[in-house]
């Protein structure tokens, strides 16, 4: 298929607005999504490259060598790209997309998000424990409230009350179990956690947003009261 000369190449940066950017990085952030066929902010995409044996490999850090193939950061897009042979079409060579490619991306993103929490803890930007988290919420410095997906409903309802009393309402994440959070944060029985606004939080948020295309931010089993302001 001949490429429209006005379309951006799949792995070539495209200016967001050539008249406005303040830096080179700001001017070149778009990539061509091979599913949509449109230039899209790369923070909303997953980069893939050709791995050994022509296997399609996710490159979440965007550092692996080779020509990148960019796909929307959601399960449907990755599945469709594999099903329709869009990786091969973009690379102009035969590539094999594993049947569990979307699952691979989800697992890698989840690890990246959890690893990011570990880094935030070492930087002093993590608060854990019910009372300490409530105090952090009241300070207005909390960017994210992170609740264990398997925590008790009663504790979660009490934390919800604190969230809506906070001067700045944080975003809420509930996709990890207490054990997963404990491993990431070096603790036990980690149920309530606050991520403070600080250096690195924006980048971590972008990873969470990409992961949300593969699993919901909040478990569907949580009660409706957790999702609505009291």
Structure write-up:
The termini are far apart. The protein has a four-stranded mixed sheet. Strands 4-3-5 form a three-stranded antiparallel sheet. The chain has helices at residues 24-27, 75-83, 86-91, 101-122, 130-139, 153-165, 178-185, 201-211, 224-227; strands at 30-33, 38-41, 45-50, 56-58, 69-72, 126-128, 142-147, 171-173, 192-196. Helices cover 38% and strands 17% of the residues. It contains nine helices and nine strands.
| Structure annotation, total helices | 9
Overall helicity: 25-40%
The total count of strands amounts to: 9
Instruction: Quote the distance from N terminus to C terminus.
Output: 55 Å
Succession of helices and strands: HEEEEEHHHEHEHEHEHH
User: What are the segments in which pLDDT stays under 50 over at least 5 consecutive residues?
Assistant: 1-24
Report the β-strand fraction as a percent range. Answer: 15-25%
Estimate the mean pLDDT confidence.
87
Which overall shape is indicated by the principal axes computed on the Cα atoms?
elongated
Strand order of the largest sheet: 6-9-7-8
Q: Which class of secondary structure composition applies to the elements?
A: alpha+beta
Radius of gyration over alpha carbons? 20 Å
Biggest beta sheet attributes: 4 strands, mixed
